[in-house]
Amino acid sequence: MSSGIQSLLKAEKEAAELINEARKYRTERLKAAKVDAQSEIDDYKKLKENELLKYEQEHAGLNETIEKEADTEVESELVTIKKNYESKQKQVISLLVDAVTKPSPELHINA
């Protein structure tokens, strides 16, 4: 009877050792998987950063071109406005002077 108990205790001890080894193996595998996943994440992150830099470099000149076009358009509009000012300045001044110095009295519509 003692040998039966001894064999049960031995089997229980071996089972406990197997369970501990399985837990250690699982823990090691989880750590390895975590390290692998982190390296894949870092590689993907580097890839996307490189793609972003490439995209920014390709489109960097686009903003400068648009700014130059806008500046030339603004300059041409300013020239047109100045020409209109020069040509109509005397007419507006004479119209204002006439309106002030030669009033024409009229009844208001509501009067």
Global shape: rod-shaped
User: How many angstroms separate the termini?
Assistant: 131 Å
Strand content: under 5%
Q: How many extended strands? A: 0
Give the number of helices: 1
Family: Belongs to the V-ATPase G subunit family.
InterPro entries: V-ATPase_G
Coiled coil: 8-72
Subunit structure: V-ATPase is a heteromultimeric enzyme made up of two complexes: the ATP-hydrolytic V1 complex and the proton translocation V0 complex.
Would you summarize the structure shown here?
Helix content is 90%, strand content 0%. The protein contains 1 helix and no strands.
What does the secondary structure layout of this molecule look like, with pairings?
Layout: H1 2-101
Overall description:
- This protein has a domain at 1-71.
- The protein is 90% helix and 0% strand.
- It contains 1 helix and no strands.
- It starts with a helix and ends in a 10-residue tail after the last helix.
